[in-house]
Amino acid sequence: MAGTLSAGSATSADGPRRLTVDLAAPEGPVLHGANGALYGLSDDGVPGDAVLAPLKITSITQKPEGGAQHPGGDALTVSRSFFRNGGGDVLMMMQDVYARWPYEDLGLDDYLPRVDGIVEAVAAHPDRARFVHIPFNEPDQIWYELGVADRTRYEANRDCFLRDWATVVRRIRAIDPDARIAGPNESFYHPRLLRDFLVFASREDVLPQVMTWHELDTASLRDFQAHHDDYRALERELGVPPLPINIDEYGNRRDLSVPGRLVQWVSMFERNKVYADQAYWDAAGDLSGSVVRTNVPNGAWWFFRWYAGLTGDTVRVVPPRPGAVDTLQGLASLDPARRQAQILLGGSAGDCEVVVRAVPRPVFGRTVVATVAEAAWSGYEGPHPAPRVLARTVRAVTGDGTVTVPLRGLRPMSAYRIVLTPGGSGTPAAPSVPWTASYAAQDATVTGGEVRAHGTADDAGGYAASGDRDVRLDAHAGRADFTVTVPADGVYDLAVLYGNASGAPAAQRLSADGGEPVTVTYPSTLNGAHRARKELTVELSAGPHLLTLDGGDAEITLDRIDLTARTGVPSAAYEATLADIEGRPSYDYGSSAGVGTGALVLRRGDRAVFDVYAPRDGYYAVVARASAPVRLALHGESPTATPGRPLRLYLVAGNNRIAVTAADVAVRSLHVSGEGSAEGTLSYGADSAVLTGGARLVPSAHASGGLRIGHLGHGSTARFTVDAPRAGRHLLVVHYAHDDRRDNGHAYNADIVSRTADITVGAGDPLRVTFRNTWSRDDHWTLGVPVDLRKGPNGVTFANPSGWAPDIDRIDVGRVVG
Q1: Nearest to 50 by CA among 462, 613, 440, 537
Q2: For the segment 354-410, what is each residue's pLDDT rounded down to a tens digit?
Q3: Is the pTM of this model over 0.90?
Q4: Are 70 and 137 in contact (CB under 8 A)?
Q5: Residue 272's Cα: distance from chain center in Å?
């Protein structure tokens, strides 16, 4: 059962651990360097713009255009969405031009012409200065065997590598003298090789512009600081100017998607002001396990969203055990201009005290509002709503400039954010924190299954699991009995963290206390350990109960279940002072009432952008808390929001970027409530479309009408007629499925392929839309596309003249402003 978390009174000195933040010890401007990913993007549009833009990603690592290593992730292709969403550099693994892993060694004579083609394509690109060439990937293991212990063999292999390095670098610069190059890109830190490399590269004038190596072992959490310091000492000793460092692969399966573990990696990289990209172990296009489907955030995404929201300078953070694996770690920033301090922490269970020292009184005054929120682990594929605010309290700044924020019941896989803002008049509203509890599957009574261990510190390649255990239930005979206790009669939200590798939706029975069972249907997951979340509701009386999951028609793995008391219509408040901004708005902390973090004062030319979560496609009530009307921008529509009066807006499942503009208006927050109403939307099933060419209706037990449109593309089309009651901006939500894959022979990568469709409305120009793989042809996901419709009949045509489009179950259409 999860503990509670509060910002209550401090405990004794020999109680909770202490994490200390020193606001008087700046470490330099926030770099946001550790938010990248290897093969984090698979296509233009995967992941979606709404989840890319908020993260302010400084680097990604991809394959060269047309490379054979993987079916997607071509650097020039994905750069279109990366750059339009504020992305920084695109690093290219040039050897990913080859298909095999490890790369087939056909000799330098074969490689050099491939290098020519890669460099020429980049040199012709209008943003060529933003690409970085990585000539060799893990040369210590591949082609050159630079990690051998025998010195004679090492020196022979080293000399071969250094000759080839110089040859390739000179070849690149002969084509593009301004090309940026990164390397040597070892699989882990090799001080012996790096000394020899720096000496040689300096002498031969073939130094890279970016220094790269990989940190893929759990021990890196302990050892990276020594690696970094040793490398910087090498530079000083050899007279090499300091090079930017990019750890272009970091972390392992147990780390990815887990906010509490990512805190540990990101804090050490940000402290040292190095860039870093998460490793690619499974599927491309999900930012290394941070994005669900195309547009849906999980807990890790929200952690990286917090990281992107740090402004000003980072400051020194002293954790209880610096450099220790799986312990409480953190990072923090101070922005005097915004009058905010932010602290991100996590990585261990239990209680702690966050002691913030040297809080500047001219910036914050005599009191601060401390706002605490949690980003939990929701699985690799589990949606995560906006992080819940757990505490919002006014705290006095002591005479020596200290503020202490006690935290209770931390969960080791969660990350937490503390925001300090000046205390104003009034009392902050206490957040509504419903009762919640978690029950690990390993603690259930299991029959017809087994408890499995993986994702421990010693099993870094294993998938993350709550308590490092999960339960595999046999098909049909498997059963898990959970003993739960709830505090009051009522309706509870039940979330099941599960895996389903059957290749189709799978069902189990859920019963309470042996009562009449209901069917729980689990969508497919990438594999049995790639967790997703299935959400439903149960009605329980106060006291103990037995919840049983059994009788599955396929093998299901269970990680845990979460029970949360339902206290009304789901809602969330998004503070304006923590929104992304454009222009030069000011921050007003005169009142701490309400959400407590003050107000953002927008003037003409200013803009605030809120990241608003929706659990499903549909209509939600959006209320602006502001001193006067403001203009919103969503999906190409620009309604005016009157303070306190709800707007009915159509949101897509996942993240929605809502921009707010105004002239001399103080905005406190956006409040969003609802569950995604379909009232007022139009729905058209597969059988309502007019099909041409080879497109045809295919029976499907999992499609909403029992049919879907298949064999769509390669000249065939599907045309829906949408009868719009009013003209204007609409959301076209496509329910689709496909499971294209290409087996490149890499056991640790799922080489999924996206499909595209050209969508044409009326006589307009076709819009090319990318549809991510759905894990099976029977799992239907949704993708929302903004379109303009005229009043009356509108033809909406799906086509793909050169390939296959996805299968289509149905389309839903709703006005953006309902």
Answers
A1: 613
A2: 999 999 999 999 999 999 999 999 999 999 999 999 999 999 999 999 999 999 999
A3: yes
A4: no
A5: 23
Q: Report the C-alpha gap between 619 and 569 in whole angstroms.
A: 13
Separation between Cα atoms, residue 484 and residue 479, nearest integer Å = 16
Place of tokens 């994005």: 291
DSSP characters over 410-467: E-TT-EEEEEEEE--BS-BPPP----EEEEEGGGSEEESEEEEE-S-TT-TTSPP-GG
Going from the C-alpha of 599 to that of each of 420, 575, 613, 660, 669, the distances in angstroms are 14, 8, 21, 13, 8
Q: Which two tokens stand for residue 377?
A: 């682990």
Q: Please check whether residue 646 is in contact with residue 684, taking contact to mean a CB–CB distance below 8 angstroms.
A: no
| Residue type, position 24, single letter | A
The model's pLDDT over 572-604, given as tens digits with 9 standing for 90+, comes to: 999 999 999 999 999 999 999 999 999 999 999
Q: How far is CA 351 from CA 258, 260, 411, in A?
A: 19, 14, 9
DSSP-assigned letter for residue 577 = G
Amino acid at 233: A
Strands 665-677 and 571-575: antiparallel
Please tell me what DSSP assigns to residue 674: E
Q: Indicate the residue type of 367.
A: T
Say how many C-beta atoms besides its own lie within 10 A of residue 233's C-beta.
Answer: 11
In single-letter form, the type of residue at position 345 comes to: L
- Can you tell me which residue has the tokens 């589990």? 382
Helix (H, G, I), strand (E, B) or coil at 192: helix
Kindly compute the dihedral angle of the four CA atoms of residues 491, 492, 493, 498, in this order, to the nearest 10 degrees: -130
- Residues 6 or more apart whose Cβ sits within 8 Å of residue 504: 524, 554, 702, 776, 778, 779
**Percentage above 70 pLDDT, the chain:** 98
User: pLDDT-based confidence at 5, cuts 50/70/90?
Assistant: very low
Q: Is the dihedral of CA 411, 414, 419, 424 positive or negative?
A: negative
What would the pLDDT profile of 549-563 be if each residue is shown by its tens digit?
998 899 999 999 999
